[in-house]
Amino acid sequence: MPVTPDDARLMDVQQGGRCFFCDGPVGAKATFDHLIPQAYGGIDDPANVVLAHRRCNQRKDDRLPTDEELDRFFALRRSSRLGVWPPLRALRDGDEGADEEERWMTVAQAMARER
Ligand SMILES: [Zn+2]
Predict the structure, then answer these.
(1) Helices H, strands E: what count in the chain?
(2) What DSSP element (H or E) covers 60?
(3) What pairs with residue 31 in β-bridges?
(4) Residue 21 Cα to ligand 1 middle (Å)
(5) How does pLDDT run across 84-94, given as a tens digit for each residue?
(6) 23 phi, psi to nearest 5 deg
(7) Residue ranges of the domains in the chain?
(8) Residues lining ligand 1 (ion), CB within 5 A?
(9) Which of 18, 25, 54, 86 has the most beta carbons within 10 angstroms of its beta carbon?
(10) Rounded CA gap, 59 and 102, in Å?
(11) Tens digit of pLDDT for each residue in 12-70?
(12) Which residues form the HNH nuclease domain (predicted)?
C-alpha cells in the first residue's frame, strides 16, 4: 500500500526530521526513497520506504541499500508499525561479504516468496 500522509508524518518523527542518507534536516521537502528500487520490483509501501532529500534519493539511484543503511533502517523500524519488508530482512541476513550479484539474487528470491 502506498505511503499515506499519516505514514509520512510518522516516518518524519521517527527519522527526527532528517534525511535517511545524509542525516541533514529535510522536513517538508522530503521525497520517498524506495530501499529496494521500484524499477527492480521493490514495493511502494512504508515497509520499503524512507524519507530523503531529492538529491540524496537521486544520488542513491538504483543500488541496493548497504549493510550500514540496513542496520539503520532496522533500528528505526524496531517496534514501529511502519514495518520492514521481508526482502530487506533477507538482504540483511544474507551472507556477509556477498558481492552485489549475490545480494541481488537474495533479494530476487525473497521477492519471489512474497508473491
Ligand atoms: Zn540528504
Answers:
(1) 5, 2
(2) helix 54-60
(3) 52
(4) 5
(5) 999 999 999 99
(6) 70, 10
(7) 5-114
(8) 19, 21-22, 24, 53, 56
(9) 18
(10) 23
(11) 999 999 999 999 999 888 999 999 999 999 999 999 999 999 999 999 888 999 999 99
(12) 7-58
Distance (Å) from CA 18 to ligand 1 centroid: 8
How does residue 104 score in pLDDT terms, banded at 50, 70 and 90?
A: very high
* Cβ-contact 5, 26 below 8 angstroms: no
Tell me, in angstroms, the distance from the centre of ligand 1 to residue 112's CA: 31
Cα(60) to ligand 1 centroid in Å equals: 10
Predicted pLDDT of residue 100: 93
Q: Cα separations (Å) of 7 from 12, 93, 115?
A: 9, 26, 24
